[in-house]
């Protein structure tokens, strides 16, 4: 537990470094480039990742690092830090405050520590396996909603879901008591904090989802891929999180017909 407490403290420090760095650029002049897949990358993405890589090199020089912008580097790949410097670059470059910073620490490919920071909101979520989930230092807990017809359901990446899986999209549109469309990490953070009951997400990369799992699970929720398998470095980019095991099982039924 002492090692986990120390890792969580490091995670919180990096969240503050990332937030301070991102806010230097937010709603300011941004240099925007586009990757081969046409996803945008800004000066802020690069600056945040560089700042976190520098911190990790100082404090964990033997660990591997996998960042969205710079890829995989470093030594011990069994001890791997995974960085999404700006989760929601399209939100960030349009001045929308619901962009995040994600950081995970993996051991043998499985996430053991998760950090979600919302720089424009001043919120930092941190959790490790075997420890409580916390928001700005205070414990958080997922809701006790166990039925989908009573749930607040968020559907992330709805446009891609509609394009690629119209039947699943149709079933989701008749599910839940309340439905909202969204993007990026914040709906999952709201689930851990007890405000949202379920989130279906799609077309993610490992740096988009690995930090979510320790936080959601430590808060009492469940998060897996669409087949119900635990998340790890090689998971597909289709995930589902829920406040309770019962709700999670019901959502897997919706997703798999």
UniProtKB/TrEMBL annotation:
Protein name as catalogued: Inositol-1-monophosphatase
Pfam family, one: Inositol_P
Keywords linked to the UniProt accession: Hydrolase, Magnesium, Metal-binding
Lineage: Bacteria, Pseudomonadati, Pseudomonadota, Alphaproteobacteria, Rhodobacterales
Gene Ontology biological-process entries: L-histidine biosynthetic process
InterPro entries linked: Inositol_monoP_metal-BS, Inositol_monoP_superfamily, Inositol_monophosphatase-like
Co-factor(s): Mg(2+)
EC number per UniProt: 3.1.3.25
Single Gene Ontology MF annotation: inositol monophosphate phosphatase activity
Residues where Mg(2+) binds: 68, 84, 86-87, 208
Residue ranges the record marks as coiled coil: none
Similarity comment text for this entry: Belongs to the inositol monophosphatase superfamily.
Organism name: Tritonibacter multivorans
């Amino acid at each position: 537990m002492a090692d986990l407490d120390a890792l969580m403290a490091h995670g919180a420090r990096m969240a503050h470094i990332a937030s301070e760095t991102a806010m230097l650029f937010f709603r300011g002049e941004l240099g925007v480039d586009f990757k081969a897949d046409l996803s945008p990358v800004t000066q802020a993405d690069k600056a945040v990742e560089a700042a976190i890589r520098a911190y990790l090199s100082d404090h964990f020089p033997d660990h591997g690092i996998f960042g969205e912008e710079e890829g995989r580097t470093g030594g011990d790949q069994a001890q791997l830090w995974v960085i999404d410097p700006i989760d929601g670059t399209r939100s960030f470059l349009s001045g929308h405050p619901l962009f995040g910073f994600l950081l995970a620490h993996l051991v043998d490919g499985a996430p053991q520590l998760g950090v979600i920071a919302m720089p424009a909101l001043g919120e930092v979520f941190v959790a490790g396996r075997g420890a409580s989930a916390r928001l700005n230092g205070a414990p958080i807990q997922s809701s006790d909603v166990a039925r989908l017809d009573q749930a607040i359901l968020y559907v992330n990446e709805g446009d891609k879901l509609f394009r690629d899986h119209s039947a699943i999209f149709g079933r989701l549109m008749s599910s839940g008591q309340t439905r909202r469309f969204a993007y990026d990490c914040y709906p999952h953070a709201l689930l851990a904090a007890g405000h949202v009951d379920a989130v279906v997400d799609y077309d993610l990369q490992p740096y988009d989802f690995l930090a979510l799992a320790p936080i959601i699970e430590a808060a009492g929720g469940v998060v897996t891929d669409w087949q119900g398998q635990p998340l790890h470095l090689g998971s597909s980019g289709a995930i589902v999180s829920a406040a309770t095991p019962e709700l999670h099982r019901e959502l897997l039924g919706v997703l798999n017909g």
